[in-house]
Amino acid sequence: MSARSIFQRAEIAYSSGDAPEALKLYAKAIRKILADEDVTQPFLPAGMEPPDMPRELIGAIWRNLCGFFRDPALGFNATTAPDAYKLMASFKPSNEQHNSYQAFAKRGAHGLAILKAMQITATFTTGLMAWDKKDRATAARRYQDALALADTHPPFNSKSPKAGLETWVCADVQQTRDNLKILIDTDTKHAIILGEETIGRKETRELPKPSVRFEPDGSISLDDQVSFATDVCYACGSRGAKMSKCSKCKKATYCGRECQLAHWPTHKAPCKAVTSASAS
Ligand SMILES: [Zn+2]
Ligand SMILES: [Zn+2]
Fold first, then answer.
1. Less CB within 10 Å around the terminal CB: N or C of the chain?
2. Residue 73 is part of which domain span?
3. What pairs with residue 213 in β-bridges?
4. What residues does the MYND-type domain cover (predicted)?
């Protein structure tokens, strides 16, 4: 059975209310394309696609698959939908030699752009899923990974993307950027409230006054504990999800080599104090 027919079966399952079956079929259809079909084959006849939809069949199915995992109301995750989740998670950015790399590479630049689109949207999706589990640090890391990957392909960062794949990915990239900015701004605010500007990711503190949190479902909750999603650059004060650490004390974090070098005269003494204290 062709991937297109499997996809049609998925849409029938979904419209009859069977989302788990639809998700299973999405994964099956994508595996079928990766195995022996053209990853660039069109989704609908030219001119019939909505402008924000990928023009490729694999992109259209991928959009639905990621969409299912992004909707907390559907309750899909690594436990409830292991096969589809495994497929999505295999499209992480570190997988430069993805096991289906050849299926994309043999279609040239267009094929490789589709692979990158799938990696960016999958990484953003796993970030959103971490966020739903209140794991802010993992969410921030995934958002940063997705943005770093988008930076390697300018059309996915365009302010006026072309209809199709680019419009779809650009919308995700913009949302990723917005979400990461919210995490960074919140951490910055909390660090100031706590008077501990160098507090780093995964560290948790009690807030003197509860902080208001806006949930994705529109509800509002109060938090009296905060866990940090980002690290701060000890030199310039910017925050981010991926900072490099001082190799000596493993504590000071920097946005880049320049900041680390610039900060060394200031950091030298505290760094020595930390390393000699842990050595004794
Ligand atoms: Zn810096
Ligand atoms: Zn150090």
1. C
2. 3-184
3. 221
4. 233-271
